[in-house]
């Protein structure tokens, strides 16, 4: 369903088997070097969701080839299968494949414990207008999708559950959004994940 122009939610896009494969991959990426780390914000705080990056390292607010606020190691590469998953996600959401120039080359994996959240923000460090692809695993969350003008109202609250796909492109690409809360204990019992994982796939447009 189209939640707003360019913002398409496809519930249960990943079946149980694909969810399990993606979770196993996330667990491997989370290991050092350049594994899961706590993101330090410029104001001296820390984000409550922990993160691992592929392709390029996100730090507030920019991209770098090494784990700037982690162990300094080069980030792990973006696997071709994950770039292809991004391409298929856009194709399914919009009914047409993305241009060849828009190859998914960055993945940010956020891990939310039961009390983690993410404040309202927008994602503007990428230099490409390509849609952001979001995949959710484990516990459901309340996702708040806002507007492009401010962090405040109007916004819509949508529940994101394990296996859900969300694609944010066009006029929604620069909308404010956040995760006000995780709903602990709501993940698929068979998955074996306590907490929530969100995988976003992005096109950096930042050159080689
Ligand atoms: C709308 N992640 O990684 S996913 C993020 O659940 C981020 O971890 C949240 O916001 C999470 O930056 C929300 C949905 C999402 C991701 C990127 C977007 C929505 C977006 C970029 C533009 C507009
Ligand atoms: Fe975001």
Automatic annotation (TrEMBL):
Extract the GO molecular function terms from the UniProt entry: dioxygenase activity
Concerning SUPFAM superfamilies, the annotation shows: Clavaminate synthase-like (SSF51197)
Query: What are the protein's UniProt keywords?
Result: Dioxygenase, Iron, Metal-binding, Oxidoreductase
Q: What is the required cofactor set for this protein?
A: Fe(2+)
* Transmembrane residue ranges: none
Name of a matching Pfam family: 2OG-FeII_Oxy_2
InterPro entries the record matches: Alkb, AlkB-like, AlkB-like_sf, Oxoglu/Fe-dep_dioxygenase_dom
Q: Which residues form the Fe2OG dioxygenase domain?
A: 103-205
Q: Which PANTHER family match?
A: ALKYLATED DNA REPAIR PROTEIN ALKB-RELATED, NUCLEIC ACID DIOXYGENASE ALKBH1
Name of the featured protein: Alpha-ketoglutarate-dependent dioxygenase AlkB
Its source organism is: Streptomyces racemochromogenes
């Amino acid at each position: 369903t189209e939640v707003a122009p360019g913002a398409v939610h496809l519930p249960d896009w990943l079946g149980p088997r694909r969810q399990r494969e993606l979770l196993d991959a996330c667990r491997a990426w989370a290991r050092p070097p350049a594994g899961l780390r706590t993101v330090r914000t410029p104001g001296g705080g820390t984000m409550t969701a922990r993160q691992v990056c592929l392709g390029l390292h996100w730090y507030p607010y920019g991209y770098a080839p090494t784990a700037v606020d982690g162990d300094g190691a080069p980030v792990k590469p973006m696997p071709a299968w994950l770039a292809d998953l991004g391409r298929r996600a856009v194709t399914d959401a919009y009914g047409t494949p993305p241009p060849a120039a828009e190859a998914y080359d960055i993945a940010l994996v956020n891990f939310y414990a039961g009390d983690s959240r993410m404040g309202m923000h927008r994602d503007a460090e990428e230099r490409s207008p390509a849609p952001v692809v979001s995949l959710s695993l484990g516990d459901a969350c309340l996702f708040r999708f806002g507007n492009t003008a401010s962090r405040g109202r109007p916004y819509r609250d949508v529940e994101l559950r394990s296996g859900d796909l969300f694609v944010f492109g066009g006029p929604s690409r620069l909308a404010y959004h956040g995760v006000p809360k995780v709903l602990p204990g709501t993940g698929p019992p068979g998955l074996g994940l306590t907490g929530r994982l969100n995988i976003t796939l992005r096109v950096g447009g930042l050159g080689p």
